[in-house]
Amino acid sequence: ASTCLNHLAQSIGDTAFLSIRHRLDSICIARQTGHHPIQVLSIDVGARRPLGAGVSGVAILSCLSEAELQPIIAANAKRLEQSSLTPERLIEKVRQATELGYAYVQHGVMSGTSAVAVPVVNAQGNPQAAITITAMSNRLDASRLPYVVEQMKAQASQLSRHADINCN
Fold first, then answer.
1. Average pLDDT for 44-65
2. Nearest to residue 121, comparing CAs of 160, 161, 149, 65?
3. Predicted structure pTM score
4. Which residue, among 159, 109, 155, has the nearest Cα to 135 in the 3D structure?
């Protein structure tokens, strides 16, 4: 996993994160900074958030069926309220991520930042994790986002193919 994040951080230049799904939460298990002079360190390794509170959780939820999604959103509703997120708004974000194949927020946790996440699925198509890139907003704009997402999906594919979570 660290090889994947290192590859992304170096090829893209911004901070890469790996978060895993644990029951109703996503937990950041790794973070790798890139070479761009301004790095966005929006969450720490070990940070636990309800699924859907950040782009990693939205990316993970985007791979679930409606039947799997609804109980998670219901169980996390009170916790998501703390992020000013209603169940309806979260479902909207998840549907958008499902359509796009990635979750994206133009206005990230910190002012002037953006974040994008892609799911990592196992052989059965079940989401196990998400890879996230955070950057200054001008580095994740419409002209650069497709390249970043393409790089992220390639690494997510590598991760999903290797049981030992080792890329390249």
1. 96
2. 160
3. 0.93
4. 109
